[in-house]
């Protein structure tokens, strides 16, 4: 579903068993799924299928809902933009969660806060994303459980930039990644980007190459089935 | 060019057909042998109700509930389904039943889910308006009626009893499904109920907003014209509608378009031969699918099949043009078509009777989430129309053309590029796919210079060659 399927074997066996059987509906598995979300937060992994299954359990059993687990799942989903994961999670939350007039509980408020970040990140407003993120202490609380949130977000944004640009102004990169001069250098080294004056050069990759291509027709043998058959029929 | 593409499509469909021969011969025999018409059931003339209460109950289970049915009728109907399914699932050994009609199994699952859907909507509305206190009291006292757990339980039990997933896996592996079917799964009753329950699950998950799980449910079913559901027009249609819709919500617009196109082309080609009442019921649904395909094509422009394109222009010409043009004026059109064509979404739990205003229509919620992506995507058509004209272009100049500032344009370009990459199904389960470019236009930025490139399709010669070769004989 997401563009980043989990690496084979990284999902714990018991979770895999739940997901492939009817236990995914069993309210007693909620705490196990919750622990797994916690684990994903700690060791910086991500398992969309399992998280959606937990949100579904919450959907069916609202009394079991744990606010911080939901926000943790959303925060994790933010990090895999531009995959639709964040939206897919929202679809499973209570229908009034986005309605500021009626849903006044803490969870709904937090979800709407995260939606603001999601809108910014999905519209490629990276500088505005960081400004919004730093403008409210609530965000720091929301991402607190999620180890390496800022670093992961930076890498994700950098990946998007590298997919569109070969050369880009240093200002833009600094703003998009929200780093100062000192912190920029090690990042650029890690990405393999080079500085030239006030420009940053990004090595050519498949996406920022934008090469004109001509698709040649591919011909399968069985398209000639009829011709070949006819050849034999005529001979006989 | 067009002919070449269509020919290629036909060749592929042909491949699909041969793959599934096994499924067709093993699973549908029962349906093919008996070619009764379901129309007769509604009249009560075609079924032999030989004083057998059970046969009457079976027929009743497949009969649509009156649209204006009140709560008591809905509760009774729920109880009837419960006892019928209990009887089928939990009797001593498999029940020996003759199916009232060919289409019975589909109709019963279809009606069961329809009533669940309609009950949830009814309850939601009652809670929201708060007009009828007595009804609300009854609803409060019966939270278990038409509960989502029991509906899912029925569907999953029918699938498990018939070993349907195992059977489908066996067929996929070219093995005899009867070896894994067990004593229940070998019988047409269980086999058909189990099979259509999978389609039912697809639908229920979609209604609840779980689009990923909806598609995952069909892991073992191969989508093509020879699949069992294709024998029952309504089932065929329903399956493609929900699969296409789920793809759309997963933002896999190219896959959604492919899915909708497939069934719409099929319907338009077979219109002439379909004469039973099943076909009438889907013409309304047909329009909804055209609305959805219009949304998808506006978000992800691709070349449509000619017949579909013509019909689309007839039905939604004005809306389609507005959406394609993009910009903020297009947003209300997207909203209108979405609400018109989306499934009747439900919330799985009893509503909040204390606070009527809390019961937001789930469709509104899903629309809101969906529109977020639309808002991001609709600048794409305008950008594309300009980029197509150049090989290199200055960002500031382009910004003037589209009347925005360079920084905003840069964002739009990044988003355009992201939307251009979509997961697209090639083989395997419906959720699988490869990352592909949906548009033939690509570009990269070198500081403020936009380098535009185009993927061109070379000449297609094989079909031309084959056609002329045939003439040479």
TrEMBL record, chain A:
Q: Note the InterPro entries from the entry.
A: ARM-type_fold, CSN8_PSD8_EIF3K, eIF3k, PCI_dom, Transl_init_fac_sub12_N_euk, WH-like_DNA-bd_sf, WH_DNA-bd_sf
The primary location reported for this protein is cytoplasm
Q: Name one GO cellular component term.
A: eukaryotic 43S preinitiation complex
Q: Which UniProt keywords apply?
A: Cytoplasm, Initiation factor, Protein biosynthesis
Q: Where in the cell is it found?
A: Cytoplasm
User: Which Pfam families does its entry note?
Assistant: CSN8_PSD8_EIF3K
- The residue ranges of the PCI domain are 46-218
Provide the GO MF annotations for this entry: ribosome binding; RNA binding; translation initiation factor activity
UniProt-listed GO biological process terms: formation of cytoplasmic translation initiation complex; regulation of translational initiation
Instruction: Please give the function described in this protein's UniProt entry.
Output: Component of the eukaryotic translation initiation factor 3 (eIF-3) complex, which is involved in protein synthesis of a specialized repertoire of mRNAs and, together with other initiation factors, stimulates binding of mRNA and methionyl-tRNAi to the 40S ribosome. The eIF-3 complex specifically targets and initiates translation of a subset of mRNAs involved in cell proliferation.
Instruction: State the family it belongs to.
Output: Belongs to the eIF-3 subunit K family.
What subunit structure does UniProt give?
Component of the eukaryotic translation initiation factor 3 (eIF-3) complex.
Q: Write the protein's name.
A: Eukaryotic translation initiation factor 3 subunit K
Automatic annotation (TrEMBL), chain B:
Every PCI domain range: 259-449
Give its localization.
Cytoplasm
Q: Name the keywords, alphabetized.
A: Cytoplasm, Initiation factor, Membrane, Protein biosynthesis, Transmembrane, Transmembrane helix
Record region (Disordered): 1-20
Has the keyword RNA-binding been applied to this entry?
Answer: no
In alphabetical order, the GO MF annotations are:
translation initiation factor activity
Q: Which PROSITE patterns match?
A: PCI
Q: What are the boundaries of the signal sequence?
A: none
GO biological-process terms attached to the record:
formation of cytoplasmic translation initiation complex
| GO cellular component terms given for this protein | eukaryotic 43S preinitiation complex; eukaryotic 48S preinitiation complex; eukaryotic translation initiation factor 3 complex
Q: InterPro entries under this entry?
A: eIF3l, PCI_dom
Per its UniProt record, what Pfam families does this chain match? Paf67
Taking the record's annotation, the residue ranges forming a coiled coil are none
**Key word S-adenosyl-L-methionine present:** no
Function of the protein:
Component of the eukaryotic translation initiation factor 3 (eIF-3) complex, which is involved in protein synthesis of a specialized repertoire of mRNAs and, together with other initiation factors, stimulates binding of mRNA and methionyl-tRNAi to the 40S ribosome. The eIF-3 complex specifically targets and initiates translation of a subset of mRNAs involved in cell proliferation.
On subunit structure and binding partners, the annotation says: Component of the eukaryotic translation initiation factor 3 (eIF-3) complex.
By its UniProt entry, which PANTHER family does this protein fall under? EUKARYOTIC TRANSLATION INITIATION FACTOR 3, EUKARYOTIC TRANSLATION INITIATION FACTOR 3 SUBUNIT L
The similarity annotation says: Belongs to the eIF-3 subunit L family.
This protein's name: Eukaryotic translation initiation factor 3 subunit L
Species of the source: Pyronema omphalodes (strain CBS 100304) (Pyronema confluens)
């Amino acid at each position: 579903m997401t563009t980043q399927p989990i690496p084979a074997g990284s999902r714990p066996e018991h979770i895999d068993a739940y997901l492939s059987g009817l236990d995914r509906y069993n309210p007693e598995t909620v705490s196990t799924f919750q622990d797994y979300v916690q684990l994903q937060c700690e060791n910086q992994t991500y398992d969309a299928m399992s998280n959606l299954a937990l949100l579904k359990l919450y959907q069916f059993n609202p009394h079991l809902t744990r606010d911080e687990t939901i926000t943790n799942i959303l925060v994790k989903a933010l990090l895999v933009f531009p995959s639709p994961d964040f939206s897919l999670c929202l679809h499973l939350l209570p229908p009034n969660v986005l309605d500021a007039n009626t849903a006044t509980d803490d969870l709904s408020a937090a979800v709407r806060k995260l939606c603001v970040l999601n809108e910014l990140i999905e519209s490629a407003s990276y500088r505005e994303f960081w400004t919004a993120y730093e403008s409210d202490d609530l965000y720091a609380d929301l991402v607190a459980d999620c180890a390496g949130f800022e670093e992961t977000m930076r890498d994700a944004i950098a990946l998007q930039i590298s997919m569109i640009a070969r050369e880009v102004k240093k200002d833009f990169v600094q703003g998009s990644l929200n780093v100062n001069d000192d912190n920029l250098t090690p990042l650029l080294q890690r990405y393999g980007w080079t500085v030239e004056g006030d420009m940053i050069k990004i090595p050519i990759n498949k996406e920022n190459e934008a090469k004109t291509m001509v698709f040649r027709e591919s011909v399968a043998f069985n398209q000639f089935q009829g011709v070949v058959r006819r050849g034999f029929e005529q001979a006989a | 060019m067009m002919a070449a593409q269509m020919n290629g499509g036909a060749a592929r469909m042909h491949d699909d057909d041969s793959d599934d021969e096994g499924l067709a011969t093993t699973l549908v025999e029962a349906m093919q042998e008996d070619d009764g018409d379901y129309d007769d059931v509604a009249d009560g003339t075609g079924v032999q109700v030989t004083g057998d209460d059970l046969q009457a109950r079976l027929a009743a289970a497949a009969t649509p509930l009156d649209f204006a049915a009140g709560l008591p009728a809905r509760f009774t109907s729920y109880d009837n389904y419960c006892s019928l399914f209990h009887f089928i699932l939990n009797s001593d050994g498999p029940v020996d039943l003759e199916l009232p009609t060919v289409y019975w199994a589909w109709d019963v699952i279809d009606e069961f889910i329809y009533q669940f859907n309609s009950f949830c909507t009814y309850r939601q509305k009652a809670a929201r308006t708060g007009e009828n206190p007595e009804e609300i009291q009854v609803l409060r006292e019966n939270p278990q009626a038409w509960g989502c757990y029991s509906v899912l339980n029925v569907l999953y039990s029918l699938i498990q009893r018939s070993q349907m997933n195992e059977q489908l896996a066996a067929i996929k592996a070219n093995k005899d499904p009867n070896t894994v079917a067990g004593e229940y799964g070998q019988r047409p009753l269980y086999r058909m109920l189990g099979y259509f329950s999978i389609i039912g699950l697809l639908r229920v998950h979609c209604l609840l907003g779980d689009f990923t799980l909806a598609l995952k449910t069909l892991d073992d079913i191969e989508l093509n014209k020879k699949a069992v559901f294709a024998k029952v027009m309504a089932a065929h249609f329903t399956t493609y509608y929900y699969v296409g819709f789920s793809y759309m919500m997963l933002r896999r617009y190219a896959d959604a378009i492919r899915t909708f196109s497939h069934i719409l082309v099929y319907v338009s080609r077979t219109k002439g031969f379909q004469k039973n009442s099943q076909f009438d019921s889907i013409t309304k649904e047909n329009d909804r699918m055209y609305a959805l395909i219009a949304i998808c094509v506006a978000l992800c422009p691709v070349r449509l099949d000619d017949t579909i394109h013509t019909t689309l222009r007839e039905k939604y010409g004005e809306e389609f043009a507005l959406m394609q043009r993009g910009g903020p004026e297009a947003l209300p059109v997207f909203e209108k078509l979405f609400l018109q064509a989306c499934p009747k979404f439900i919330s799985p739990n009893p509503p909040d009777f204390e606070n009527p205003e809390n019961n937001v229509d789930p469709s509104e919620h899903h629309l809101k989430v969906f529109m977020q992506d639309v808002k991001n995507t609709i600048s794409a058509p305008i950008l594309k129309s300009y980029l197509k004209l150049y090989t290199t272009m200055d960002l500031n100049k382009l910004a003037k053309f589209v009347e925005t500032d360079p920084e905003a344009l840069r964002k739009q370009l990044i988003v355009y590029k992201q939307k251009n990459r979509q997961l697209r199904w090639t083989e395997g389960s419906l959720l699988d796919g490869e990352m592909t470019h949906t548009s033939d236009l690509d570009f990269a930025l070198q500081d403020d210079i936009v380098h535009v490139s185009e993927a061109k399709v070379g000449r297609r010669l094989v079909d031309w060659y084959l056609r002329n070769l045939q003439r040479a004989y």
